[in-house]
Amino acid sequence: xxxxxxxxxxxxxxxxxxxxxxxxxxxxxxxxxxxxxxxxxxxxxxxxxxxxxxxxxxxxxxxxxxxxxxxxxxxxxxxxxxxxxxxxxxxxxxxxxxxxxxxxxxxxxxxxxxxxxxxxxxxxxxxxxxxxxxxxxxxxxxxxxxxxxxxxxxxxxxxxxxxxxxxxxxxxxxxxxxxxxxxxxxxxxxxxxxxxxxxxxxxxxxxxxxxxxxxxxxxxxx
Length: 222
Known about the structure:
Layout: H1 8-11, H2 37-40, H3 75-81, E1 90-92, E2 100-109, E3 112-122, H4 126-139, E4 144-145, E5 152-162, E6 165-176, E7 179-189, H5 198-215
Antiparallel strand pairs: 1-2, 2-3, 3-7, 4-5, 5-6, 6-7
């Protein structure tokens, strides 16, 4: 491998996946104060009324914690998508490693550079995960659905150019019950200054996403 300086856009790459804050649930303020006894019942009637409403039981969560992200992909997949990278990857520090975890692989082989991130995020409910999924897909417009990927899957590929150097990046967002999987995969060729093809990046990101969604089953479940 030849040591070459990386473009500023890659070395200053944003941290893998920004975490969106979950929406809070609004709680009721409780029953109103009881009316005066004289107004509580019509004249001549006796008896009592219960002010207690039936309690709601929270639906069980399918996933209770994020799986180990660096073990979510097969070694042969890492080798194929990121030639020259160590298959163990590097886990990125998280503010809440119980619910949000990310692993990153990157390598420069010859003039070819590849970067791959796999992130997991576990939510309190399917509804919250669905809301987060919809928001993230709106933020990355121009892509399309990925059939058969979790409960919902979406993929988008974009090309950027800086100092005549092209970089093509694919992002796949998948929802499985109350969890999200986000895969980011990009690449550049520093000799030709061209980026790898759209098909290569898109298929690579989807392959990684399918393995990552399957790995959710290896983590803690409700």
